[in-house]
Amino acid sequence: MLKIPSARKKKRAAAQLNLVPILDANFILIFFLLMSSNFIKIMEIASDVPIISTKAPPPQEKTIPLALTVKILSDGFAIYTGVPSALLNKIPTHDLEALHSQLVALKLKHPQEKMVVLEPEMDLPYEKIVDVMDSVRNLRNTDESIYAKNDKGVEVKVTELFGQVIFGNVFGG
Which of 32, 44, 97, 157 has the fewest CB atoms found within 10 Å of its own CB? Predict the structure, then answer.
């Protein structure tokens, strides 16, 4: 009679993987990813999208809207107001100070207005668009104080020039 070798008789236990080092490495990696995310600054420039609808007519307003449009031309800026738009003023160079002072004078006449449409008619570097947006949106400490009535009818100081910036022709055409 043949004897079965003893090594075949015993069943070996399945080898288990030690997952602790892998889990430790993953948690350390997650920790460093979360910590390094604080070093990345993501900046956003808020801009609304124009609403175009063919279903319903626009609501009738009691006051005539300013409908302010600033066109960025190759040789300067053009400021349009009204519906249909009419040229109010043309600034022959890309002088941001002149644009800002024109818009401050316009804001003094229309303190409730918050919207401006920017229409770049030429390719501009990103930094130039940001500079134009800053001069259109921000009131400076040196600007004349502007007051407007809030929802409750109380006069409050206006803190921004035209804060709702909408791009009119981003894709050109």
Answer: 44
